[in-house]
Amino acid sequence: MHAIAMGLSRALAMLGGLVLAALVLMTCVSILGRQFNILLNSDLAQTVAPGLSATLLGMGVGPIFGDYELTELGMGFAIFCFLPLCQITAGHARVDIFTSFLADGAQRWLRLAIEILFASALVLIAWRLSLGMTRRINTGQTTYLLEIPYWWPYAASLAAASIAALVGVYMVWVRLQEALSGRDIIGEGEESEH
Q: What is the distance between the alpha carbons of residues 52 and 36, in angstroms, rounded to a whole number?
């Protein structure tokens, strides 16, 4: 079961990474296009090479149309894609000033309580996303420039959030097994200590 959950979490994180990389690339191209457009519209370019400037501007040299909208929609999805891997590897930041002195058994029960809180939050987020998606489908609301239906990114984020919720519930089960058996199955993971 752990291998399936880990594989699904990694695959989703890779998809989120691809989306994030595409957004970064698009942003860079859009910024370069915007700057090139400013240069082509400058007095210098219009004086030195008016024909070339007009041709390039006519070809559409400039920022990517709707880049802000695409970034806004893609970032939410990418964030939800990283949640399952962070959850299953216990990659959340933690501050253990008050808990580091606790015995191993108490640490396991504390990790179980934390996993229950995380899983509850993830289930709540997935549920609220499903309600938001349904509302967006019913209203037919679209983005301003590209007219992308808002429910599309909601659906993509809901799929990723649902997987995160499933992984969260799985981690509750793992932490319960650890607490009851008195031995670590996964352990503390790769948490960042602060």
A: 13
Domain residue spans in the chain? 2-181
Query: Which of 132, 144, 136, 140 is closest to 68 using CA atoms?
Result: 144
- Secondary structure of residue 73 in the 3-state scheme: helix
Q: What is the pLDDT of residues 114-125, one digit of tens each?
A: 999 999 999 999
- List the chain residues with pLDDT less than 70: 187-194
| Separation CA 49–CA 119 (nearest Å) | 61
Phi-psi region of 86 (alpha: psi -120 to 50; beta: other; left: phi over 0): alpha
CB atoms < 10 A from the CB of 172, how many?
Answer: 19
pLDDT at position 193 is 42
pTM for the model stands at 0.83
| Cα gap 76→56, rounded to integer Å | 34
What are the respective helix, strand and coil percentages of the chain, to the nearest 5? 75, 0, 25
